[in-house]
Amino acid sequence: MSDIEDRVRKIVVEHLNVEADKVTEKASFMDDLGADSLDQVELVMAFEEEFGVEIPDDAAESIQTFGDAVAFLTKATA
Amino acid sequence: MFDLTGKKALVTGASGGIGSAIAKALAAQGAEVALSGTRMGALEDVAKGISGKTHILPCNLSDLDAVERLVPDAEATMGGLDILINNAGMTRDNLFMRMKDEEWDDVLKINLTAPFHLTRAAVKGMMKRRFGRIISITSVVGVVGNPGQGNYAATKAGLGGMSKALAYEVASRGVTVNMIAPGFIASAMTDELNEKQHETIMQKVPAGRLGTADEVAACAAFLASDAAGYITGHTLNVNGGMVML
């Protein structure tokens, strides 16, 4: 498990108050983890802060699952 | 009771009568206040009259680039922003059929578009910190209308709708969004009314007098405080009973 995955999972677990083992690669924030649209915005803000990157709105919209977030942030911080 | 110690506030239109009274009231409750406006000298005078910590952040609200910078500047200067007071406003009155495009556009820009930009910028940090107070100064004319003020009334009604929509979105994050709607408040403008005009106005006001800027400012101090944490999407009418909504 990569360091980025760990950090993203920690944020998701804290923000959405879900069990860590529910946060799988295919898990959708909204459909599987109970996030509403505001939670989704807050997650993106938390990712930006944690990784010191800017996530533009169109990219933010494409981040639907835990896997999407890890992939985006892996690329953005590479 | 309405303690604001440690809170950081930004007041637009802070050199005006109501704006300066709000800045003073927030500071009196312990808030650190950033004063924004266009008249540097007048802002300095307001700052001098406040014993607490103040900052002057000049901003022309018709310049969108400057508007976009104002909240980040305030956050950088004070290390955060807990209270945003959208107070700045202007009138450019004309009968509806005569109203020029510029008269419409100018008033919308200052009274509605600038508050949208400022609020959007401010609410992000407020959500993160799980505390925020957005307070916009509207007007009774946004609800009841006023001849010659089609543009102004539209912006004040618009602020109301905007605030309520936002209030829904951020309520669960400890951010409240409220309005204060003053009626006739004593100001440089009302000083110029002649006796006849004054009398005509007074007939509409059950309280039988003009309101004071301090009476408006007290509402802002209340709404900004922890005590008002369960009030959101609300308008406090400060009009001496002129319109009871």
TrEMBL record, chain A:
GO process terms (BP): Kdo2-lipid A biosynthetic process; lipid A biosynthetic process
Pfam families: PP-binding
Segments forming domain Carrier: 2-77
Regions annotated as coiled coil: none
Superkingdom of origin organism: Bacteria
O-(pantetheine 4'-phosphoryl)serine, modified sites: S37
Keyword Iron-sulfur in annotation: no
Record PTM: 4'-phosphopantetheine is transferred from CoA to a specific serine of apo-ACP by acpS.
One Gene Ontology CC term in the entry: membrane
Keywords noted in UniProt: Cytoplasm, Fatty acid biosynthesis, Fatty acid metabolism, Lipid biosynthesis, Lipid metabolism, Phosphopantetheine, Phosphoprotein
GO molecular function, one term: acyl carrier activity
Pathway stated in the Swiss-Prot or TrEMBL entry: Lipid metabolism; fatty acid biosynthesis; Glycolipid biosynthesis; KDO(2)-lipid A biosynthesis
Principal subcellular localization: cytoplasm
Subcellular location field: Cytoplasm
Family the entry assigns: Belongs to the acyl carrier protein (ACP) family.
NCBIfam families: acyl_carrier, PRK00982.1-2, PRK00982.1-3, PRK00982.1-4, PRK00982.1-5
Main function: Carrier of the growing fatty acid chain in fatty acid biosynthesis.
The name this protein goes by in its record: Acyl carrier protein
Organism: Pelagibacterium lacus
Taxonomic lineage: Bacteria, Pseudomonadati, Pseudomonadota, Alphaproteobacteria, Hyphomicrobiales
